[in-house]
Structures are given as C-alpha cells and as structure tokens.
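Suppose you are handed a protein chain with no further information: no name, no annotation, nothing but its sequence. What can you learn? This example shows the usual starting point.
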Amino acid sequence: MKTAVVTDSTAYIPKELREKWDIKLIPLSVIFGNETYREEIDITAGQFYEEVKHQALPTTSQPPTGQFVELFESLAKDYDAVISIHLSSGISGTYQGAVAAAGMVDSIKVYPFDSEISCMVQGFYALEAAGLAALARGPEEIMDRLAEMKQSIRAYFMVDDLSHLQRGGRLNGAQAFIGSLLQVKPLLHFIDKKIVPFEKVRTRKKAMNRVVELLGEDAGSGEDYRAVIIHANRKQEALDWKAELEAEFPNVEFMLSYFGPVIGTHLGEGAMGMGWYKK
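A reasonable first move is to predict its three-dimensional structure. Written in structure tokens, the prediction is:
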C-alpha cells in the first residue's frame, strides 16, 4: 500500500523537509488589493512581513475545492491512498474543502484529517504520517497514530495585538479580554478547534516563561518530546529561546518554524508560540 501525504501551506514545514518526506502541498492565499499570492509558492514569510509595512493587511482565502480534486486525481497515478492533513476546521474551511473533494474523487481513497490546530504543530502530523507512509504502513494505521498524537499535542501562542484576530473572527471569547488589554499579553490556545484565551500575562517575557512552565509540566516526566518554537518575524528572539530551552530540556527535540502569511495576517508581527507532543 503506497500512501501519499498532503497538507496545506499553513503547516509551514520547511521546504527541505517537505521534499525529503515527499509531502504534497496545497496552498492557501493572501490577497493584497487585486493581487493574490499563494503562500510558500508566490510569497515567503519574510516578503509578507515587509509588504504589510507598506500597505493594509491582506485578506486570506482557502484553496478551491477543484484544486483538491485535481491534486487527488493526479496522485491516483502513483498512490493507493491519500492522507490529507489540514488546519483546524474551526478557523478555516480548508478541511471541509478536502472532505468535499474526497467525495468527488473515485480514483483514489482519501482520508481527510482535521488537525484542530495550525502551523508547524499541524506539520508534526504531516511529518509523522509521511514517516509511517515511507515504512509502507497503511492509511488506517497512520490515521490511528495521528489520533493518538492528538492526545498529547499542546500549543500556546502570544500575540502583541489581538485586533487582527478579532477583525478576522478567528478569536473566540475575546470580549472577556477587551477592557484590560493594555500592558497585557494574552496567551491563546486551541480548544474545540477554536482559538480561545488561555491566560492573561502582564509582559512578553512572563508570557514566554509561562509557556515554558507548561512544557515542563509535560516534559518533566522525562519522556521524549518533540517541540517547535514559532515566531512572526522574530527569528533571533526565537533562536535565543530555542538555545535556552535545549539546555533546560535535554529530553525534548526542538525545531524552529514561523507564522507565515496566512496565519501572520491574523496574528500580526511579533507573535510567538510553542507546541509539542510526546514521541
């Protein structure tokens, strides 16, 4: 059984890893005025953050269902099944697009998977699936492993300004925070597929330290974990944080990723996050 792995661009898996593990990419887009850019293809994260300094924030769009159909049908030539892993259905219709396309394709069996999260934490699912597919594991076994991973996956992120999330309707329950946002760095996470507030923290440094505490609650068991630090155009800060954490948690394998154009549109520059799961 030969299984293809598809994910969308909001997983922000480095290109070299996508190529190494043969992960197929379907892009979401950002739209500046009349210009549409497919993230990871037409525009990089660095180009995006430079662009938004000079013009209004773009809108974002999910892949058309027809694009999924075309991709799945093309994979049928070389594969027996497809696992299609996407950002949370609570913040985007991308997963539903994959489900709809799966019902329109007869040439290959498609297994859509709702990561219920986004960014490189979503990417962890794709990398795990691709590793198992390379070992010729069947799609049902791979889907079972993804469901198992979901039990230990955690992710928290901090934004400098909640207005982007509110405007885009991606933040659930934000009203509780509105009157007290000055000097507050809210920690956010995903619950029931939606982005919701986790805690209010007074400063950026305290917010990041709180995330480290949460990691320690899991990784303190001594079991092996994989984690990712995610930044919105704050690479050096993220690298420094990674170096500190690697010294503190020898049982955790850390990697670095970023909030790309689509997610960056909703979080804004300066956001920082971390996610992890038990290996």
